[in-house]
Hints:
Blueprint: H1 7-12, E1 15-16, E2 22-25, H2 38-48, E3 50-54, H3 62-72, E4 84-87, E5 113-114, E6 117-124, E7 134-138, H4 139-145, H5 148-154, E8 158-163, E9 171-176, E10 178-180, E11 187-189, E12 206-209, H6 214-228, E13 234-237, E14 244-248, E15 252-256, E16 266-272, E17 278-279
Parallel strand pairs: 2-3
Antiparallel strand pairs: 1-2, 3-14, 4-16, 5-17, 6-14, 6-16, 7-13, 7-15, 8-9, 8-12, 10-11
InterPro entries: AlphaKG_dependent_hydroxylases, TauD-like_sf, TauD/TfdA-like
Cofactor: Fe(2+)
Pfam families: TauD
Amino acid sequence: xxxxxxxxxxxxxxxxxxxxxxxxxxxxxxxxxxxxxxxxxxxxxxxxxxxxxxxxxxxxxxxxxxxxxxxxxxxxxxxxxxxxxxxxxxxxxxxxxxxxxxxxxxxxxxxxxxxxxxxxxxxxxxxxxxxxxxxxxxxxxxxxxxxxxxxxxxxxxxxxxxxxxxxxxxxxxxxxxxxxxxxxxxxxxxxxxxxxxxxxxxxxxxxxxxxxxxxxxxxxxxxxxxxxxxxxxxxxxxxxxxxxxxxxxxxxxxxxxxxxxxxxxxxxxxxxxxxxxxxxxxxx
Length: 284
Protein backbone atom coordinates (compact mmCIF):
# COMPACT_ATOMS: atom_id res chain seq x y z
CA UNK A 1 0.00 0.00 0.00
CA UNK A 2 1.56 3.37 -0.97
CA UNK A 3 2.53 5.74 1.82
CA UNK A 4 0.73 9.02 2.41
CA UNK A 5 2.39 12.02 0.80
CA UNK A 6 4.13 14.31 3.27
CA UNK A 7 5.39 17.86 2.99
CA UNK A 8 8.92 16.45 2.72
CA UNK A 9 7.87 14.46 -0.37
CA UNK A 10 6.80 17.57 -2.24
CA UNK A 11 9.16 20.24 -0.92
CA UNK A 12 12.33 18.15 -1.08
CA UNK A 13 11.61 15.75 -3.94
CA UNK A 14 11.71 12.48 -1.98
CA UNK A 15 12.66 9.54 -4.18
CA UNK A 16 11.76 5.95 -3.23
CA UNK A 17 14.52 3.52 -2.34
CA UNK A 18 14.30 -0.22 -3.01
CA UNK A 19 12.66 -2.12 -1.37
CA UNK A 20 11.74 0.60 1.13
CA UNK A 21 12.87 3.99 2.36
CA UNK A 22 13.19 7.43 0.80
CA UNK A 23 16.05 9.63 -0.41
CA UNK A 24 15.96 13.42 0.04
CA UNK A 25 18.57 15.13 -2.12
CA UNK A 26 19.52 18.76 -1.49
CA UNK A 27 17.86 20.87 -4.20
CA UNK A 28 20.73 23.38 -4.20
CA UNK A 29 24.33 23.48 -2.95
CA UNK A 30 25.15 24.71 0.53
CA UNK A 31 21.88 23.86 2.23
CA UNK A 32 22.43 22.61 5.79
CA UNK A 33 21.19 19.14 6.70
CA UNK A 34 18.83 20.85 9.15
CA UNK A 35 16.95 22.62 6.32
CA UNK A 36 14.18 20.00 5.88
CA UNK A 37 11.79 20.62 8.80
CA UNK A 38 12.06 17.95 11.50
CA UNK A 39 8.29 17.40 11.60
CA UNK A 40 8.27 16.64 7.86
CA UNK A 41 11.26 14.28 8.02
CA UNK A 42 9.80 12.55 11.09
CA UNK A 43 6.53 11.94 9.24
CA UNK A 44 8.46 10.55 6.27
CA UNK A 45 10.55 8.25 8.49
CA UNK A 46 7.39 6.92 10.13
CA UNK A 47 5.83 6.32 6.72
CA UNK A 48 8.88 4.88 4.92
CA UNK A 49 10.88 3.60 7.96
CA UNK A 50 14.17 4.98 6.60
CA UNK A 51 15.17 8.34 5.13
CA UNK A 52 18.53 9.39 3.66
CA UNK A 53 19.50 13.07 3.41
CA UNK A 54 22.19 13.48 0.75
CA UNK A 55 24.02 16.47 -0.70
CA UNK A 56 23.36 18.74 2.28
CA UNK A 57 26.09 20.44 4.30
CA UNK A 58 26.63 17.91 7.11
CA UNK A 59 27.06 18.55 10.86
CA UNK A 60 30.39 20.09 11.76
CA UNK A 61 30.99 17.64 14.60
CA UNK A 62 29.36 15.26 17.05
CA UNK A 63 27.97 18.14 19.11
CA UNK A 64 26.07 19.40 16.07
CA UNK A 65 24.70 15.91 15.42
CA UNK A 66 23.60 15.65 19.05
CA UNK A 67 21.90 19.04 18.82
CA UNK A 68 20.02 17.85 15.74
CA UNK A 69 18.96 14.72 17.60
CA UNK A 70 17.65 16.87 20.45
CA UNK A 71 15.52 18.78 17.94
CA UNK A 72 13.75 15.45 17.37
CA UNK A 73 13.22 14.64 21.05
CA UNK A 74 14.96 13.25 24.11
CA UNK A 75 18.36 11.77 23.28
CA UNK A 76 19.39 8.43 24.81
CA UNK A 77 22.35 8.72 27.17
CA UNK A 78 24.83 5.82 27.13
CA UNK A 79 27.86 5.20 29.33
CA UNK A 80 30.00 6.87 26.63
CA UNK A 81 27.62 9.83 26.23
CA UNK A 82 25.14 10.51 23.43
CA UNK A 83 27.24 10.30 20.25
CA UNK A 84 28.54 6.85 19.32
CA UNK A 85 31.51 6.57 16.97
CA UNK A 86 30.82 3.59 14.72
CA UNK A 87 34.45 2.89 13.99
CA UNK A 88 36.69 -0.19 13.96
CA UNK A 89 39.23 -0.28 16.79
CA UNK A 90 42.78 -1.53 16.36
CA UNK A 91 42.26 -3.95 19.26
CA UNK A 92 38.49 -4.38 19.51
CA UNK A 93 36.91 -5.88 22.62
CA UNK A 94 33.52 -6.43 20.99
CA UNK A 95 32.21 -7.16 17.50
CA UNK A 96 30.63 -3.67 17.44
CA UNK A 97 34.17 -2.32 17.03
CA UNK A 98 35.35 -4.96 14.56
CA UNK A 99 34.90 -5.35 10.78
CA UNK A 100 33.51 -8.86 10.42
CA UNK A 101 30.13 -10.49 10.91
CA UNK A 102 27.61 -8.67 13.09
CA UNK A 103 24.28 -10.26 14.09
CA UNK A 104 21.08 -8.62 12.89
CA UNK A 105 19.60 -6.73 15.87
CA UNK A 106 17.67 -3.70 17.08
CA UNK A 107 19.35 -0.85 18.92
CA UNK A 108 18.69 -0.26 22.61
CA UNK A 109 17.65 -3.82 23.38
CA UNK A 110 20.14 -3.79 26.28
CA UNK A 111 19.25 -0.26 27.38
CA UNK A 112 16.39 0.69 29.72
CA UNK A 113 14.52 2.34 26.83
CA UNK A 114 14.50 1.38 23.15
CA UNK A 115 15.03 4.47 20.96
CA UNK A 116 12.46 5.23 18.30
CA UNK A 117 14.94 6.78 15.89
CA UNK A 118 18.56 6.22 14.88
CA UNK A 119 20.30 9.28 13.41
CA UNK A 120 23.54 8.49 11.55
CA UNK A 121 26.14 10.77 9.98
CA UNK A 122 28.75 9.29 7.62
CA UNK A 123 32.20 10.87 7.89
CA UNK A 124 34.13 8.35 5.75
CA UNK A 125 33.20 5.15 3.92
CA UNK A 126 34.85 2.46 1.81
CA UNK A 127 34.22 2.22 -1.90
CA UNK A 128 30.87 0.57 -2.63
CA UNK A 129 32.67 -2.53 -3.96
CA UNK A 130 34.62 -3.07 -0.72
CA UNK A 131 31.82 -3.85 1.74
CA UNK A 132 30.88 -1.91 4.83
CA UNK A 133 27.30 -1.24 3.84
CA UNK A 134 24.66 -1.15 6.59
CA UNK A 135 21.82 -3.60 5.99
CA UNK A 136 18.33 -2.75 7.19
CA UNK A 137 15.34 -5.11 7.20
CA UNK A 138 11.74 -3.91 7.29
CA UNK A 139 10.10 -6.44 9.61
CA UNK A 140 6.58 -5.29 8.70
CA UNK A 141 7.35 -6.41 5.13
CA UNK A 142 8.65 -9.73 6.47
CA UNK A 143 5.43 -10.38 8.36
CA UNK A 144 3.23 -9.25 5.47
CA UNK A 145 5.01 -11.68 3.11
CA UNK A 146 5.05 -14.64 5.53
CA UNK A 147 2.20 -17.14 5.44
CA UNK A 148 -0.38 -16.66 8.23
CA UNK A 149 0.24 -20.08 9.80
CA UNK A 150 3.94 -19.32 10.23
CA UNK A 151 3.19 -15.87 11.66
CA UNK A 152 0.78 -17.45 14.17
CA UNK A 153 3.54 -19.83 15.22
CA UNK A 154 6.06 -16.99 15.50
CA UNK A 155 3.67 -15.08 17.79
CA UNK A 156 4.14 -17.76 20.45
CA UNK A 157 7.96 -17.61 20.30
CA UNK A 158 9.89 -15.98 23.14
CA UNK A 159 13.67 -15.59 22.97
CA UNK A 160 16.28 -15.11 25.68
CA UNK A 161 19.31 -13.03 24.73
CA UNK A 162 22.38 -12.61 26.91
CA UNK A 163 25.62 -10.69 26.37
CA UNK A 164 28.35 -10.01 28.92
CA UNK A 165 28.70 -6.25 29.44
CA UNK A 166 32.18 -5.88 28.00
CA UNK A 167 31.61 -2.53 26.27
CA UNK A 168 28.57 -0.23 26.52
CA UNK A 169 25.82 -2.85 26.39
CA UNK A 170 24.96 -6.22 27.87
CA UNK A 171 22.67 -8.14 30.19
CA UNK A 172 19.69 -10.46 29.80
CA UNK A 173 16.78 -9.64 27.49
CA UNK A 174 13.65 -11.81 27.33
CA UNK A 175 11.53 -10.73 24.38
CA UNK A 176 8.70 -12.07 22.24
CA UNK A 177 9.63 -12.50 18.60
CA UNK A 178 6.53 -10.62 17.40
CA UNK A 179 5.67 -7.31 19.08
CA UNK A 180 3.35 -4.40 18.24
CA UNK A 181 4.97 -1.18 17.06
CA UNK A 182 4.74 1.27 20.00
CA UNK A 183 3.36 4.07 17.78
CA UNK A 184 1.27 2.35 15.09
CA UNK A 185 0.46 -0.98 16.74
CA UNK A 186 1.55 -2.83 13.57
CA UNK A 187 3.21 -6.20 14.23
CA UNK A 188 7.01 -6.13 14.05
CA UNK A 189 9.84 -8.60 14.69
CA UNK A 190 12.36 -8.20 17.53
CA UNK A 191 15.24 -10.56 16.84
CA UNK A 192 18.93 -10.74 17.71
CA UNK A 193 20.46 -13.13 15.24
CA UNK A 194 22.50 -16.03 16.63
CA UNK A 195 26.00 -16.31 15.21
CA UNK A 196 25.97 -18.90 12.38
CA UNK A 197 27.89 -22.12 12.85
CA UNK A 198 31.50 -21.79 11.77
CA UNK A 199 31.60 -18.02 12.30
CA UNK A 200 33.56 -16.51 15.18
CA UNK A 201 33.04 -13.02 16.58
CA UNK A 202 34.10 -11.15 19.69
CA UNK A 203 31.56 -11.26 22.55
CA UNK A 204 28.93 -13.33 20.72
CA UNK A 205 25.35 -13.25 22.04
CA UNK A 206 23.85 -16.31 23.67
CA UNK A 207 20.43 -16.81 22.03
CA UNK A 208 17.86 -19.32 23.31
CA UNK A 209 14.39 -20.02 21.95
CA UNK A 210 12.32 -20.66 25.09
CA UNK A 211 10.28 -23.88 25.39
CA UNK A 212 11.59 -25.31 22.12
CA UNK A 213 13.76 -28.34 21.52
CA UNK A 214 17.16 -27.66 19.88
CA UNK A 215 15.77 -28.90 16.57
CA UNK A 216 12.68 -26.68 16.81
CA UNK A 217 14.82 -23.70 17.81
CA UNK A 218 17.14 -24.17 14.83
CA UNK A 219 14.10 -24.34 12.53
CA UNK A 220 12.65 -21.10 13.90
CA UNK A 221 15.98 -19.29 13.59
CA UNK A 222 16.44 -20.53 10.02
CA UNK A 223 12.94 -19.35 9.04
CA UNK A 224 13.41 -15.91 10.54
CA UNK A 225 16.96 -15.45 9.26
CA UNK A 226 15.91 -16.42 5.73
CA UNK A 227 13.06 -13.91 5.77
CA UNK A 228 15.22 -11.09 7.18
CA UNK A 229 17.84 -11.40 4.44
CA UNK A 230 15.28 -11.84 1.64
CA UNK A 231 15.94 -9.04 -0.91
CA UNK A 232 12.23 -8.16 -0.83
CA UNK A 233 12.69 -6.96 2.75
CA UNK A 234 16.31 -5.80 2.97
CA UNK A 235 17.80 -2.42 2.03
CA UNK A 236 21.61 -2.23 1.76
CA UNK A 237 22.87 1.31 2.26
CA UNK A 238 26.10 2.24 0.49
CA UNK A 239 27.46 5.12 2.52
CA UNK A 240 28.70 8.38 1.03
CA UNK A 241 30.52 10.97 3.17
CA UNK A 242 28.01 13.51 4.40
CA UNK A 243 25.05 11.14 4.35
CA UNK A 244 22.50 11.62 7.13
CA UNK A 245 20.40 8.48 7.58
CA UNK A 246 17.44 8.31 9.96
CA UNK A 247 15.54 5.12 10.73
CA UNK A 248 12.48 3.83 12.53
CA UNK A 249 14.25 1.57 15.03
CA UNK A 250 10.90 0.18 16.24
CA UNK A 251 10.30 -1.41 12.81
CA UNK A 252 13.73 -2.19 11.39
CA UNK A 253 16.49 -4.58 12.29
CA UNK A 254 19.99 -3.91 11.02
CA UNK A 255 23.53 -5.20 10.72
CA UNK A 256 26.89 -4.31 9.19
CA UNK A 257 28.27 -5.89 6.04
CA UNK A 258 31.82 -7.19 6.69
CA UNK A 259 34.68 -5.21 5.22
CA UNK A 260 38.46 -5.37 5.19
CA UNK A 261 40.25 -4.01 8.25
CA UNK A 262 42.05 -0.75 7.49
CA UNK A 263 39.45 0.61 5.09
CA UNK A 264 38.01 4.02 6.00
CA UNK A 265 34.58 3.66 7.64
CA UNK A 266 33.51 6.14 10.29
CA UNK A 267 29.90 6.86 11.21
CA UNK A 268 28.48 8.78 14.14
CA UNK A 269 25.11 7.88 15.62
CA UNK A 270 22.62 9.44 18.01
CA UNK A 271 19.54 7.70 19.44
CA UNK A 272 16.27 9.58 19.92
CA UNK A 273 13.70 8.22 22.36
CA UNK A 274 10.01 7.99 21.63
CA UNK A 275 7.30 9.99 23.38
CA UNK A 276 6.79 8.49 25.90
CA UNK A 277 10.04 6.47 26.02
CA UNK A 278 9.50 2.80 25.17
CA UNK A 279 10.63 0.35 27.87
CA UNK A 280 12.89 -2.45 26.73
CA UNK A 281 12.75 -6.10 27.84
CA UNK A 282 16.04 -5.83 29.72
CA UNK A 283 15.90 -8.10 32.77
CA UNK A 284 19.37 -7.72 34.26
